[in-house]
# Entry
Amino acid sequence: MQRRPPGTEDLNAIIFDLDGTLLDSAPGIIASLTFAMRQLGHAFQPPSDIRALIGPPMNELVAQLLQPFGDDRVRQCVELYRQHYREQGLYDCAPYPGIVKALGQLAAEGYALLVATSKRQEFAERMLRHTDLYERFETVLGTSPDGALDNKADLLASLIRSLDSKPSHVLMIGDKRDDMIAARKNGVLPIGVRWGYGSDSELIESGAELLADIPDALPELVAQMSSPGVSGAPLNDGHEHRLNTPISLIASDLDGTLLRTDGTISDRTCRAIQQAQNAGLHVVLVTARPPRSIRWIAERLGVNGLAVCSNGAITYDLASDTILTHQRLATDLVLEFAGKLRAQDSLFLFATEHGHKIGYEPGYPQNPANVHVEPPLIAALSSLCAEAITKLNVYHPSLPLEDMTVRIKSLLGDSASVTHSGGGFVEIIATGISKASALAQLCQTLGVDRQQVIAFGDMPNDVPMLAFAGHCVAVANAHPEALRIASEITTSNDNDGVALVIERLLSSLL
# Structure
């Protein structure tokens, strides 16, 4: 075994994605999908961008392909696909040129090599054996029929737990946004590959540290990953993070940050928020949610001051149930933009927020968890625009969220503020408005300097607020954009990350 390159001694394991990273499996996947769709009676021709859709769990891809036909037989289609794929499709694959050489060099340098794939375990093992790659990996982990590991982040977490290694000593190499996000959520640094099925923008925006042009470049990039300057923000792992200025105001996002993944709030978080208020600190809820859907959260937390809603478009007085400020989008701008976007792709759908009200176009997926003061209006966008719009939400059944965001920003320029909070749709509000602009105005009202603010967040719509605050904290499950800007990274929303920091902050005041 060769000695590791200088500076890489701490790295001991490299996890590879399969499709689009190790193997070009698109021909077999496309052939089996075509078979399944035609078996259901559809005159299916693979779309030109189908390679870009490969990567996430098969049921998600199939649902996107069935949607234009108005067909919801996802399970039946997946079963037909897997039957054909098991018998024929999985053998129509090949290693990318240079992959075998790169794997040999990395193994010779002492790295443990593993595979984490959204493909069924059975298929992954058979493909790797068929291509003579199976013996090069210590572990191959795919998904199972029960669907327990269909989420790539959960799959990666399961594999990392099986290793005698810290996440910071592991690298992830993949070709899609799911690979990059799964790595970031697990504290693993990711390398994106440019020969697979994802785009450069998709990889960069979802957190790739480096991009590999060809497989031959991987050994050198792995060495670079341990070089000085290539690291994430520090995890809140018990080390003390000192604040330069006393904190007077806590500003926290809700979904994905203060709330757990299942939408609940832990008792520990409630206690921490109450103790902070008892200590004289302002607590401000800052969210993409409209006012109607934060009341129960505020009641659970015992917060009754001011809140920032709709990504900064609304300032809301919880105690009096009153909207204090309300920034709206120009109707002409909305209709003109929607027309241009639909001219590019007719599958785009829109929903409108109007403070306490909401409207959907027919076909726009409604969130059953939404709280409605009034029944939502279902109508064409032109009818929804009859009332002034606070926020415009844009949905597409198949485009990745990051790609949608880039496309919409290019159309709107600086005529509106464009962001997303990870909910599967892009959010548009009036130009110059953000969580930061509303929080700045609120701080001025309260007489609080920005350096006295600690902010918590997890998504791109939180980034302006995090940048505004004197001390900004991202939860471990945060989007790469939030992780990159954070002064500190705490534990995840499911592990009381916000409460952990508040408890430390309060202990310093004693």
